[in-house]
Amino acid sequence: MNVANAVTTSDAKDVADVAQAAEKALRRARLLVGPELRKAVQRLDDPVRTVAGFHFGWWGPTGEPVMADTGGDMCSTLVLTCAEALGADPRSALAPAAAIDLVHNSWLLHDDVMECALTRRGRQATWAVFGRSQAILAGDALLVLGMGSLTGHTHIAEISAAMLDLISWQGSDLAFDERFDLQPCGSEVEERLTASSGKVGALYGGACALGAVSAGADPATTAALRQFGRRIGLAAQFVDDLRAMRESGARSLRKRSLVVAAALSSCTRAGRRLGELFGRPERLSPEEKAEAARLVEKAGGPRWAEQAVRWQREQALRCLAEADLAPAPAAELAALADLVTREGYRRGEM
């Protein structure tokens, strides 16, 4: 099939059809994986169990039930859909799908602590409610549950590699945010691209590879789907950075995102002035933060990121075309690629 045609959005009907295909895949993951996640978390003792369940949105700070999705996010959706696209029953990939959701949420808990993020999935971040130590412990517990559930499986190598990539590039990401030696027309974009690809790309790429391995795919097909996941993971990061810039403006500059890195590397007068502001160890004043936000826009950071989103999406679809996939689930994968490139997509909520 022509995978690119599966996500053509030239009119309202096309957009609705693509959204419906993506939602179908996400809904199936929630229905299949949700009970497995709850079963895993129930193995924990309190207070860690309460902290983990709060993070998933199942209950409040004291354990009172709340209305929320039962679980299942983009990672598990990619596992199940890739397996089905290669002719396997999605249920055969349920164990690795649940495992990578647990691992993903372990990272989200830790990432919120490291980034001092105050919200997650439309509510207070777990560390902001229970404290940093409890959130870190809950993240550790989810990581152990996820990795432990695959003991003896061939999938353990894929998920271990994805986690090592993620940890390595998270370190690079944090180090980049603390740098003051930024050079005009430097390599900030390349460095930030590498870090972001290693983070979100590692998770999404690992998820796609897990689905392929579950279906018994050959190495070439597994590699193509892994690269597809890496591409859409990077696109998701671009979209996330653009949304933060547009919603938070100067407040988003605490994080030197891909949008900011593009502006710094633009070799424009605005980019050079931005480098001067970020090159000082002291905190920016409110006036300087407002100036920096204007400079990012003037230096073309958002425009560059928008173009990069489109390019990553095109490359992701080419990766799909390299694999021999069943038409319906292939269309769902293409629809998921389209979903993560939309401005309203919120990566941390899926």
UniProtKB/TrEMBL annotation:
<dbReference type="GO" id="GO:0008299">
    <property type="term" value="P:isoprenoid biosynthetic process"/>
</dbReference>
<dbReference type="GO" id="GO:0004659">
    <property type="term" value="F:prenyltransferase activity"/>
</dbReference>
<dbReference type="InterPro" id="IPR008949">
    <property type="entry name" value="Isoprenoid_synthase_dom_sf"/>
</dbReference>
<protein>
    <submittedName>
        <fullName>Polyprenyl synthetase family protein</fullName>
    </submittedName>
</protein>
<keyword id="KW-0808">Transferase</keyword>
<dbReference type="Pfam" id="PF00348">
    <property type="entry name" value="polyprenyl_synt"/>
</dbReference>
<dbReference type="InterPro" id="IPR000092">
    <property type="entry name" value="Polyprenyl_synt"/>
</dbReference>
<comment type="similarity">
    <text>Belongs to the FPP/GGPP synthase family.</text>
</comment>
